[in-house]
Amino acid sequence: MINRGTKTERFFITGGMGYIGSVFAQEALRRGHDVCLYDNLLYEQNRERILREVGQFKEPATQLKCVIGDTRNGELLRRSIEEFQPTFVMHWGDLSSVYACNHNPRLTKDVSYDASCRIVDLCKELGIRLFFNSTSSLYGVQAHNQLMTENDEIPEPTDLYCHYKLAMETYIKSQVDPGRPLDVIVFRAATVLGLSPRFRIELLPNHFTYMGVAHGVIKVANLEAYRAAIDIRRLVEGYFRVIQAGEWKHLIYNIGHYNLSKLDFARGVQEITHCKIEPIPDFGDLRNLQIDSSLFDSEFGFHPTTPYVETIAGVAEWISQRVDSLHKSCFSEMLNMPVAHWLKLCS
Q1: Which residues contact 208 (CB under 8 A, 6 or more apart)?
Q2: pLDDT in tens, 65-98
Q3: pLDDT tens for residues 313-339?
Q4: Rounded Cα distance, 320 and 309, in Å
Q5: How far apart are CA 253 and CA 96, in angstroms?
Q6: For residue 257, which of 174, 194, 211 has the smallest C-alpha distance?
Q7: HEC string of the chain?
Q8: Looking at the whole model, is its pTM more than 0.90?
Q9: Which of 5, 194, 253, 276 could form a disulfide with 296 if both were Cys (CB 3.0 to 4.6 A apart)?
Q10: Contact, 64 vs 29, CB < 8 A?
Q11: Which of 63, 328, 308, 154 is nearest to 339 (CA)?
Q12: Beta carbons of 336 and 108 less than 8 angstroms apart
């Protein structure tokens, strides 16, 4: 059994050099907690740069450790967790993006299901609390505009990304001991936007911002389709609300802030960049969803207030200072898809 008797929390983050993991690590260190980043650098992240950007928040008394490892390597994973002795495992090391999952079905099952199940089992065995990110994309294509709650029926997944997120929710439910306090929590997180040491440029709001800055036009299919979204630092704030509470009443929570149409996402970017918005025919992504996050908000007193345009303004400024270098590097580190596919989305 892992010892939880220290005042400082110890966070073991799979995908620790990823989009969310690196921002969470920054905030954890800023708050005086210890962090271990566990990542296989699948997206060719610059390890030294990310460690430097994360480590700037480290105090002398806190620990920042990095393990280059794959969650499929059960022996290394177990040894790394047992040596670090975390109070929480933040499992954000599965494959993320519809394209990556559909393009790599065997790898997706190995990483996003088989290895993820082993992490659930290991945390249960060692008595470590577990955070798992599912996705609001599970709510799929809604025929009518409505706020989806955690109790609403989930449609049949149309892609492998959602298929294995839903399969993991089912597996986690099967491992929960009835009548005992919950040691695992599942977040159906909205689409994330904003800056990170490992920036993801292809996420819809970030993508629109890049298009507005670099090309002066945002091409938008399905203008009236909705998405839920949240600023990345507000998402991390939500995680810490749970950590500070120390317990939770439910297994699954929606967590988000904005429910906007794609046209509204584009108009927010237009307000900052003065770009054009150009409607285009549908190209296959039919998601249309809004989520109700009131269960999480009310239980943890979470009321994010960062305006969408404020986050977008920061992203736009960052991109505008780097447009040439982004192009010269072929968007190195920033894509969960091949560059050729990304360029098609930008054409």
Answers
A1: 218, 220, 265, 266, 269
A2: 999 999 999 999 999 999 999 999 999 999 998 9
A3: 999 999 999 999 999 999 999 999 999
A4: 16
A5: 19
A6: 194
A7: CCCCCCCCCEEEEECCCCHHHHHHHHHHHHCCCEEEEEECCCCCCCHHHHHHHHHCCCCCCCCEEEEECCCCCHHHHHHHHHHHCCCEEEECCCCCCHHHHHHCHHHHHHHHHHHHHHHHHHHHHHCCEEEEECCHHHHCECCCCCEECCCCCCCCCCCHHHHHHHHHHHHHHHHCCCCCCCCEEEEEECEEECCCCCCCCCCHHHHHHHHHHHCCEEEECCCCCEEEEEEHHHHHHHHHHHHHHCCCCCCEEEECCEEEEHHHHHHHHHHHHCCEEEECCCCCCCCECEECCHHHHHHHCCCCCCCHHHHHHHHHHHHHCCHHHHHHCCCCCCCCCCHHHHHHHHC
A8: yes
A9: 253
A10: yes
A11: 328
A12: no
Residues β-bridged to residue 129: 88
Question: Alpha-carbon distance 193 to 190, whole Å?
Answer: 9
Q: Which residues pair with 36 in a beta bridge?
A: 12, 65
Tokens representing 233 are 């630092």
- Taking alpha carbons only, the member of 224, 237, 299, 320 closest to residue 264 is 224
- Please report where in the chains the tokens 């054409």 appear, as a residue: 347
Two tokens at 236?
A: 């991390």
Residue 46 and residue 48: Cα distance in Å, rounded?
Answer: 6
